[in-house]
Design a protein that fits this description.
This protein has 99 residues and is an alpha+beta fold. It has a single domain (3-78), classed as RRM (RNA recognition motif) domain (Alpha-Beta Plaits). The protein is built from two helices and six strands; from the N terminus they run E-H-E-E-H-E-E-E. It has helices at 16-23, 54-64, and strands at residues 3-8, 29-36, 43-51, 68-69, 72-73, 75-78. A four-stranded antiparallel beta sheet has the order 2-3-1-6. Strands 4-5 form a two-stranded antiparallel ribbon. It is globular and about 45 Å long. The model has no long low-confidence stretch (mean pLDDT 91).
Length: 99
């Protein structure tokens, strides 16, 4: 069964293909995603890798956690499930009167 890993400390210049290639050394990578800031369009410095099975995921954690990748030390561990968040408040003010 596939296992998703959290990867922190990713250099801002790293691409999803770079990340996927690095983690492929530990086994089959199903997907890679680097989280992008909506406002700036820049990497937030973390992402997720989905490994094909638990054994490959464990090997990837052992291979990359605390290790140097393109000049930065990575943090790699099993991703936690997404928690429910309170709905965001809108501050649009589209109907405000100018006075």
């Amino acid at each position: 069964m596939a296992k998703k890993l959290y990867v922190g400390g990713i250099p801002y210049s790293t691409t999803e293909d770079d990340l996927k290639a690095a983690f492929a050394q530990a086994g089959e990578v199903l997907s890679s995603a680097i989280i992008i800031d909506k406002m700036t369009g820049r990497s937030k410095g973390f992402g997720f890798i989905e490994m094909a099975n638990d054994a490959d995921a464990d090997k990837a954690i052992e291979m990359w956690n605390g290790k140097d990748f393109q000049g930065r030390s990575l943090t790699v561990n099993e991703a936690r499930p997404l928690e429910e968040r309170a709905p965001r408040r809108e501050f649009g003010g589209g109907n405000r009167r100018m006075g």
